[in-house]
Amino acid sequence: MASTDSDATSEVTIKFSHGGKQHSYTFGSNAVLSDLSDRIASELSVPPASQKFLIAPKTGMLKGPFHGQEKGIIPLQSIASKKITLIGSTQAEISSLNASIAAASMQPGSSPVSAAKPSRTRDWKTLHDATTYTFLQIRPLPNLPSPERSTRFLERLRDDPGIKSTMAKHQWSVPLLTEMNPADHTTHDGRTLGLNRNGGEVIELRLRTDAYDGYRDYKTIRKTLCHELTHNVHGEHDRKFWDLCRQVEREVESGDWKSGGRALTNEVFHEPEESEMVADHGGWTGGEFVLGGGSGGGRSSGAGSQGAAALSRREILAKAAEERMKKSREASSSDQEQR
What was the pLDDT predicted at 272? Predict the structure, then answer.
């Protein structure tokens, strides 16, 4: 987040986060983005070519270097009221990585690794798609318990064969896939299951249970991800959106040749009962999937149904069970009449 000074000094203060830490720099009122880039390179040792600014709302992802580029002359005043996240490795981190690679290639008794040569049998288009049409960065919430488990869950979604094939087919590239804090997205109207910010710049998913004692069902979260990916194309929940969303769900399901959505690790994930799944009434609002936000699987008006909002979770589950019993009795009566 950034803010401007309105006093006589005519300065602009830019606040941004990097590596979980907050930073604040003050510039003259005429400063531009390349000035911010230079100062970051000087004080944080993040090279301009490695800098990426995730600016919300609307501005989006800006990648360095910035000198000599049109984006480099963006006035800092224009982004001073926005949330700014710096993504990029420091020069020390880059040097450490290069040293590790060099050490790994020079094990005792081994010769230097020769330059790689293109393989005639390798499918380079598939490799290109796999590294381009994917989630470019995975990030858990470090302030919640066991962030490493969330990282593995997000990586599992990123590497899901169905998700990978579908993103390659539609040529979707998402800069950041992260988790959301259940406490920040739970109201009396419902629970937000997913968010798509700025048409696919960031996707947030509700991974954890409300009590933070486990993780929600993998297939349910993957279905939420299908919904959020659809928002890369359609913002409103109109017929075009739902047609594409159902298509994406089918593609992901058919493309999951590896596991069928079942767990591949020893982690214990929350597997909801059927009644819990029925509680997902399809209340999708404004790029969000809200549990309990609507009714009958239709589009929510935003505030949601007053009747549904007044029900507790236990009452919603009980009502869903009653509806299933009612349908079962009706089906049984229909079979007897036909006989």
Answer: 39
Instruction: With a cut of 60, say whether residue 97 has pLDDT above it.
Output: yes
What does the chain come to in residues?
Answer: 339
Predicted confidence (pLDDT) per residue in 69-83, tens digit: 888 899 999 999 999
Q: Does 70 qualify as catalytic in the annotation?
A: no
CB 54 within 8 A of CB 201: yes
Give the strand pairing for 21-28 and 60-63.
unpaired
- DSSP β-ladder status, 3-4 and 11-18: antiparallel
Residue 228 in this model has a pLDDT that exceeds 70: yes
Beta carbons within 10 angstroms of residue 319's beta carbon = 14
Q: Which helix H or strand E contains 4, and what residues bound it?
A: strand 3-4
Tokens standing for 135? Answer: 């989630």
CA distance linking residue 84 with residue 77, whole number of Å: 13
> What is the Cα–Cα distance from 167 to 144, expressed in whole angstroms?
29
- pLDDT band, very low/low/confident/very high, at 230 (cuts 50, 70, 90): very high
Options 201, 228, 249, 251, the catalytic residue: 228
Ranges 93-97, 104-108, 168-172, most confident: 168-172
Does the predicted TM-score (pTM) go above 0.85? no
Give the whole-angstrom CA distance, residue 218 versus residue 269.
7
User: What span, in angstroms and rounded, lies between the C-alpha atoms of 88 and 50?
Assistant: 5
DSSP characters for 122-172?
A: S-HHHHHHHHHSSBS-EE--TTSS-HHHHHHHHHHHHT-HHHHHHHHHHT-
All residues at 6 or more sequence positions from 57 whose CB lies less than 8 Å from its CB, including other chains: 82, 83, 197, 198
Amino acid letter for position 226? C
- Burial class (CB within 10 angstroms; exposed 0-12, middle 13-18, buried 19+) of 137: middle
Rg (CA), the chain: 24
